[in-house]
Specification:
The chain has 325 residues and is an alpha/beta fold. The chain contains twelve helices and eight strands. α3 packs across α4.
């Protein structure tokens, strides 16, 4: 085989390979866009436009997603409650999917927007579940609108803690953060990372020790796999992700002592985002709050889904939820 022939064949193979990769990417992206493009409702409220989805009937529960989410992520972690007498209402926070990014995208403004959504749905009160970065707006709801929050659940919360409180995870290296910000700006880079560095994405994006997934049940592996895959299309979540990243660097103390709603706070000690110490401190400042801490589970509470659901239902059971006339 001559050198020219070899180089020619190699070039053809490279082009074919690139074509296959691009076709796979476009196929996966079409499926991702179809998934987030159906099942939700966009509503205009006095606080602006908001996207949400509902499931189940009974006690209203606002499911507030974390970074990289949207109504789909909130529904994914709260939907098991829909079969247990809970009306799950999962919305897309500011800058995620079809909820636009306003000039004021603070947690307080987001909390006020959730109340506007409740008004539009004729809900006088609702339980509020905030996961990860969604915990800040959930806390603000309980602080700013105590008469509207019947119960508060914080899952692996991104919350302020005093510098004196023990750290439970090392800060993210600057180069890792820079790489993450580049990846979330591109659907193709994020998709490629899912296929080429999935273990690293589990540890970096979902802040979960990879060894936990290797020994997890098939159900848990499927749940965590979907959490990663369903971040696509990341381009439709990039504005919210960037806002969450900026907000996480500027956390300030909240008036936790004013919260009166029955409260459940959950985290795992090996959460690579270090939410355990934050959750523990937050629970210590809210009168009567229950802190449910696991030794392992990471940011996705692997192996503890049943316990999380049971504890949530136990908190919700006594709560009344009348509708507005």
């Amino acid at each position: 085989m001559t050198l020219h022939l070899f180089l020619g064949m190699a070039a053809v193979l490279l082009v074919l390979g690139a074509g296959v990769i691009w076709w796979l990417f476009q196929t996966d992206m079409a499926a991702a866009r179809l998934r987030v493009g159906q099942g939700s409702t966009v509503i205009t409220t006095p606080c602006g436009v908001m996207e949400y989805q509902e499931a189940g009937a009974g006690i209203p529960l606002l499911a507030i997603h974390g970074s990289g989410g949207g109504f789909d992520q909130g529904m994914a972690f709260a939907s098991p409650l829909a079969a247990k007498g809970v009306r799950v209402i999962a919305m897309s926070r500011f800058g995620y999917l079809r909820t636009p990014m306003p000039a004021d995208a603070s947690a307080a403004a987001q909390a006020d927007a959730f109340v506007c959504l409740m008004d539009a749905l004729h809900l006088k009160t609702a339980a509020v579940m905030g996961g990860s970065a969604g915990a800040q707006s959930a806390l603000q709801m309980a602080i700013r609108h105590p008469d509207r929050v019947s119960a508060l659940i914080l899952l692996v919360p991104l919350a302020w803690k005093p510098p004196s409180a023990a750290a439970s995870a090392a800060p993210m290296a600057s180069w890792v953060e820079a790489a993450m910000m580049a990846v979330i700006g591109s659907d193709f880079l994020f998709w490629s990372s899912l296929h080429l560095a999935r273990t690293r994405m589990l540890a970096t994006v979902l802040a979960t020790p990879p060894d936990l997934l290797r020994t997890a049940s098939g159900t848990e592996k499927a749940r965590i796999g979907a959490m990663l895959d369903h971040i696509l299309p990341v381009s439709a979540r990039a504005a919210g992700l960037r806002n969450d990243t900026a907000t996480s660097k500027a956390l300030t103390p909240s008036a936790l002592g004013t919260i009166t709603a029955p409260t459940l706070i959950i985290s795992a000690r090996d959460d690579l985002y270090g939410t355990f110490a934050r959750a523990e401190y937050t629970a210590s400042q809210i009168a009567g709050a229950r802190f449910l801490g696991f030794a392992t589970g990471g940011h996705t509470w692997i192996g503890h889904s049943d316990e999380v659901m049971a504890a949530t239902l136990a908190l919700l059971a006594p709560q009344a939820s009348p509708a507005l006339p």
